[in-house]
Amino acid sequence: MGLRRRLALIVALIAAVVITCGGLTAWGVTRSVLRGNVDDALRAQARSFQEGPRGFRDRLRQLDRAQVSPYDSPYGAGPDPAAGQDPGGYPGGVPAPPARLGGPAEYAQAIVADGKRVIRGDVSLPVSDEDRAVIGSGGMVGPRDVTVGDAHLRMMTVGLPGIPAAVQFARPLNGTDDALRTLALVLLAVGLVTVGTAAVLGRGVARRILRPVSDLAGAAAHVEATEDLGRRLPVRSDDEVGELTRRFNGMLARLQGSRRALDRSIEDQRNLVADASHELRTPVTSLRTNAEVLLEDDGSIGETERRSILTDVRDQAEDLGLLVSDLIELARGDAPAREADEPVALDDLVREMVTRARRDHRGVSFAVEAEALVVCGRPDRLGRALSNLLDNAARYAAGDGGAVEVRVVPGPEDSAEVHVVDHGAGVPEQDRERIFDRFRRGDSARERPGSGLGLAIVRQVAATHDGRVWVQETPGGGATFVLRIPRQPDDDAAAEPTVPSGESATEPPDAAG
């Protein structure tokens, strides 16, 4: 069953419950009012009869059983003139009150101490022990329902104080019952019509309310069939359905962005494969060539040339190792576990990395200006990030004799900054964020050695140390890479910072390697 039908059914059920409760209440109130009117009339008539007529009560006191018994027939109909009875009274000259014992009551009869009926109308009313109990007491019994033949009556018995008799009054309820049956039929018909109308209207309202949901289902089906994430739905309201539509549109937007990012990542990986293939082809080919030369040597290669070939083999193996190392470094993820964080003398670490860079890039001069600053982190990873920045700057320095400037200065918000400045071609503004992405290399970088992973590693290291890295233009041309790392907290200032070991870090700042 569809949601629209369920909503229509729910509306119809609610309407049915409301109509049923309302109808039962209306019917019950009407019944209570109609029967209450009959009961009020019976009580009023009983009180009126207890207070008069006096002559009739006096005659009842004088009656004895011999005088009463001839008229105890269940179907007696009052005085008989042919038998010498007074049409205006009963045996012994007992006068009848107007309209047979009490006026407007349609049925009435009098009973004496032994329960015999002495005066009655067209119907013989039933006499119970409760009715006999009020004879001569002035009490009342009822009103209660009784049935005589096909007649449904409401009856009440009233005792006459000081007189061994009681009078019963009854009014028919057939008219009341007919009215209640008619009312019940009318309420039933109205209820059925109302429930049907509610079901139809509920289906229409459900269709209107669920139209945005249907649109959502259609959009989802469209996306499933076409994989088109660019479709958006109009927001027609500010209610929950409108909020659902907004969330759906937002989800599509995020999925579309994720797909674009995935497409870019795939493209970057394709570029990486091409770059890595190029980078690997050269050292592998060279290694194979050198190996073949050594294998085919018949003694004609001198010792100096042999050592040169072996040196090339070593260097090419190191290049392959560095490429694999970069891939492994990035494979750790964007937030690798930070283990064994410790105070690090950033100025000393920078000088050590500059010393290594001078050895690897002998045609580039490095100048260092470093203030004594301590940060908290892992020396090996910070050293790797600094080494990548220095290698990147050295590759893009303006040819042989190019210069790279390195500065360690305090940064804002209790941080330390490392500025690596080159005077090469610089980085276009549109590429200044993307060059830190994995597998991202600028168009101009494809002609230079490298895997395109170094700057991605720098950003990863900065993130794991709660820092950041960015690139900006160098005045006069070139690029300035800035690595910002939070400084060591004051409460840890007493800890001895790690001083990098290895090569001396005290060479002159402007010395060339």
From TrEMBL:
Keywords: ATP-binding, Kinase, Membrane, Nucleotide-binding, Phosphoprotein, Transferase, Transmembrane, Transmembrane helix, Two-component regulatory system
Gene3D superfamilies in the cross-refs: 1.10.287.130, 6.10.340.10, Histidine kinase-like ATPase, C-terminal domain
Family matches, as PROSITE patterns: HAMP, HIS_KIN
CDD domains, sorted: HAMP, HisKA
Swiss-Prot/TrEMBL catalytic activity: ATP + protein L-histidine = ADP + protein N-phospho-L-histidine
Domain HAMP residues, every copy: 207-260
Stretches of the chain forming a coiled coil according to its record: none
Descriptive protein name: histidine kinase
